[in-house]
Specification:
mainly beta; about 130 residues; globular
Amino acid sequence: MTTPAVARDADSAWWWDALERDRLLLPRCGACGRCFFPPISSCPHCGAPDPEQVEASGRGTVYSWVVVHIALDPEFADDVPYAIVAVDLEEGARMFGRLLGDGAPSAGAAVRFAPFRRGGTSLPGFELSD
């Protein structure tokens, strides 16, 4: 089993480290107070530098999705088809992750954060919730 490649850099290393511990942290701007994703060095809303890291609830709703029929990474070839969902988190950020479980995605469906592991790497996932 191979390890999927992840893009760790100076701005996102803390996020990947938290994910390894099954935690969902988000960057939040100290100036305007808005959460955002992905982690970058300044707020995409107001431009203020050095966002803080806050614990997220992991709850959100499906904004959109795509169903993958041909895996771009051989690590996921046996999983197709699977859905990648765009989720609007309660904190206001939108992020992407794998939809886990047997349910089908639908717009507005409630989900909760559920990281999963593949080849020793933690990856973002979501499960449908009530």
